[in-house]
Amino acid sequence: MNRTIIISDIHGCIDEFNELLDNVRFNRNSDQLILLGDYVDRGPASKDVVERTMELVLQDNAIALRGNHDQRLVDLVLGDEAAVKAKFREHGGLQTLQSYIGFTGTEITDEAIHQARERIGHAYGRHIEFLRRLPLYYEDDAHIYVHAGLNPNYPNWKEQPERDFMYIKGDFYLHRTHVDKKVVFGHSRAEEIHRKSDVWFAEDKIGIDGGCAYGQQLNALIVENGSYLTERVSSKQIRR
Known about the structure:
- The chain is of the alpha/beta class and 240 residues long.
- It has a single domain (3-136, 194-234), classed as Purple Acid Phosphatase, chain A, domain 2 (4-Layer Sandwich).
- It has 10 helices and 10 strands.
- Helix 2 links the parallel strand 2 and strand 3.
């Protein structure tokens, strides 16, 4: 592979995602595409982003990881926990229901969730199964790729709780890692870290979440011959 292209936190922004792939001239024969999770919620086209991600994995050898929003959708459809429903309502679930089942309400009631679970599980069970089976991390010779980060309290990062791979924030990016590879991550918006939506570079880690669903941008990190390049597409979403 000549290049590794990494994108994270697409959050239903299908137009920006496709435009970014076009802009970096993604070539399945010479590029390794790695997607760091959070395909759903907040943006307008979660269903389309998951479908596109599945195509890229199955047809173009892309690697897709699981994010916390992806896990939450799986838990919503396959389970019935009140905490999951509450978080789904709080963090962009309305747009996901609009995308998947054409939901027209403004409030996600328990009855709406019950109906959504049945309809999504029946019509899009392969999406849920795909998201459920996604790995939590990937590594190559020089990098560890993960949605959220590595917990510095675990000398062996592979032994950290699954939740940390998808949820950890400041405990990760505010502290040095204990690994000899650079960690590439999403989840924490770059704007939260260095007040800009552009890719954040530190000595031991790189944060690439540009906040597309918040009206900011979708970033791509390109690794080629040991050097880093970036590409971005401005969001077409209304800032939330």
